Amino acid sequence: DLQTLADITSARRRRRIGSGAVVLERSKVFFEHDADGQVVGLVQESGSSPSHHLIEELMVLANHIVAQRLVAASAATTGCDPSGSNATNKQSEASIRNPLLRKHPDTEEKVKEKVLTVVQDELRMIAPREVSLSELLDWCKQRMTAHAYEAVCADVLKEFSEAEYIVADTAQDGPSPDDGHWALSLPTYMHFTSPIRRYADILVHRRLAHIIQGNGEEQLNKGGVEGMDESA
């Protein structure tokens, strides 16, 4: 049931945060309208509700598991047909051996320095230095108002590097430790399920369908591109 699922995802979330995952408090603001469609106020919605955490944790877990599956896969690489047919292009995309991962560089020290710069003077003087960023943020959260802490989170976010798509080299001993997702504290991550459907996500879907079906090339020849899309 939902309560059991919430308990499981909460445990996973605590485990990730305990291993160094960074969680920033950010709320969303919406316009409130009257019956005539006129703006009459603002509504602030917190992103820290149990339901938000449940959905977020399951999405992150799905992305991580698919990344692990694609990294572990050893399907043979197929070249791209120069004729450029849609079926052949999709087939070659699906059989590319190296996984398309989402890499987020580690900027922990820069972000910690920023946190200590933006908090109030009285907190800066007593803030712990020899702790992880996650622990420092939690320390600040316990001593600041909700609005002040959210403002700090918004400010320090500027010190995060942007995550990027990479084609991981798994020829030796798997992806490099530097290819992981720092903020999520995961060694492998990619976009498999996401509110935003990117072309990179579609490549991941095609690749996963190719692996699950066992022989993506044969399935394409039998069922056509539509069959592969349906499986993805």
Secondary structure: elements and pairs:
Blueprint: H1 2-18, E1 28-33, E2 39-45, H2 50-72, H3 86-94, E3 100-103, H4 108-118, H5 121-126, H6 133-141, H7 146-156, E4 164-167, H8 199-213, H9 216-231
Describe this structure in words.
The protein is mainly alpha-helical and 232 residues long. It contains nine helices and four strands. It has a two-stranded antiparallel ribbon. Strands 3-4 form a two-stranded antiparallel sheet. Helix 1 crosses helix 2 (50-72), helix 3 crosses helix 8 and helix 8 (199-213) crosses helix 9 (216-231). It is globular and about 60 Å long. The chain starts with a helix and ends with a helix.
List its salient traits.
about 50% helix, 4 strands, globular, about 230 residues, disordered C terminus, 9 helices, about 10% strand
Briefly say what this structure is.
This protein is mainly alpha-helical. The protein has 9 helices and 4 strands. The strands form 2 sheets. The protein has a two-stranded antiparallel sheet. It has a two-stranded antiparallel ribbon with strand order 3-4.
Mean pLDDT: 80
Radius of gyration over all CA atoms, rounded = 22 Å
Count every beta strand, where a strand is a DSSP E run of 2 or more residues.
4
Strand content of the residues, in percent? 5-15%
List the secondary-structure elements in sequence, H or E. Answer: HEEHHEHHHHEHH
Strand order of the largest sheet: 1-2
Distance between the termini: 27 Å
Tell me the helix content.
40-55%
The low-pLDDT segments are: 74-85, 216-232
Return the structural class. mainly alpha
Multimer state? single chain
Shape: globular
> Biggest β-sheet: count, sense, barrel?
2 strands, antiparallel
- Output the number of helix runs: 9
